[in-house]
Write a structure and sequence with these properties.
Order of helices and strands: HEHEHEHEHHEHHEHHEHEH
Radius of gyration: 18 Å
Number of helices: 12
CATH superfamily: Phosphoenolpyruvate-binding domains
Oligomer: single chain
Helix content: 40-55%
């Protein structure tokens, strides 16, 4: 059961046209967090089920809350697993962010898990997404046309097979994972190394060459850093996350109250 503007496919259209969208990450499983963030103007919000304790039932409530605010709810799944992706989509997610997509075959697997035949291979259930059995035809028509698949590029193998990955029908955009990418090259967090810089640069170059939307998650709650990434050509911008927003404002406020210097 979808709320808001899901059926007009506005986010998918922006991704297809490589237009800027800004979203954020949710790691705390309370609907009030999602409601507050959804009301502030983000284009999309990612519910993180890879690096959080958010469960499937929590995710469904977050999806319901975000969608009711007219914002696109996406879910970052824990792995590129058809059973996991299918269940997340059945809760009513508008799309998924899939980690560690390192080859064309893995990109195809992600799309197959989201789409119904003849496009994909997803099994049919009658859960919330399908109106609990009363809106299957509407959902069936929507999911193959407007559902969203974002692949994470976070391994050197993915950089080497990037053109093939981004060329898979049904992959709407990608987002680079610089920490895991550098780790896959043997240097976790070594962003200043020449080989890591080259790999990250190749990601942007290939996305531009293919006209594909490139994504970057700016983890610090730093608007200037986000603006710099936009200048560099990234158009799917993740701006910080719930815990960072909360912690930063507390830290800044207490420092001002106590008269402490940074």
């Amino acid at each position: 059961m979808f709320e808001g503007n899901v059926y007009n496919g506005s986010l998918k259209e922006k991704l297809d046209k490589n237009k800027l969208t800004v979203g954020s990450w949710i790691t705390l499983g309370h609907p009030s967090i999602a409601e507050i963030m959804a009301a502030k103007g983000f284009d999309w919000l990612v519910i993180d089920m890879e690096h959080s304790v958010i469960t499937l039932d929590m995710a469904q409530e977050l999806i319901r809350t975000i969608g009711s605010c007219g914002v696109v709810p996406l879910v970052r799944v824990g792995e590129n697993n058809a059973a996991v992706i299918k269940r997340v989509m059945d809760t009513g997610a508008y799309g998924v962010v899939v980690p560690m997509v390192n080859s064309r075959q893995e990109a195809v697997r992600a799309v197959d898990a989201v789409k119904y035949p003849p496009i994909g291979k997803r099994g049919v259930g009658l859960a919330r997404a399908q109106g609990y059995g009363f809106a299957f035809e509407k959902y069936k028509n929507w999911v193959n046309k407007n559902s969203i698949v974002i692949v994470q590029i976070e391994h050197i193998d993915a950089i080497q097979d990037l053109e093939a990955i981004l060329g898979v029908d049904g992959v709407d955009a990608s987002i680079i994972g610089p920490y895991d990418l550098s780790a896959s090259m043997g240097h976790p967090g070594g962003f200043q190394r020449k080989d890591v810089k080259t790999a990250i640069s190749r990601y942007g170059t290939v996305c531009k060459k293919l006209g594909k939307t490139a994504g970057f998650h700016v983890v610090p709650a730093d608007p200037e850093m986000a603006k710099q990434k936009i200048k560099e050509g990234f158009k799917f911008i993740g701006f910080s996350l719930d815990t960072i927003f909360l912690g930063k404002k507390i830290e800044e406020g207490l420092r001002m109250i106590k008269g402490e210097k940074r």
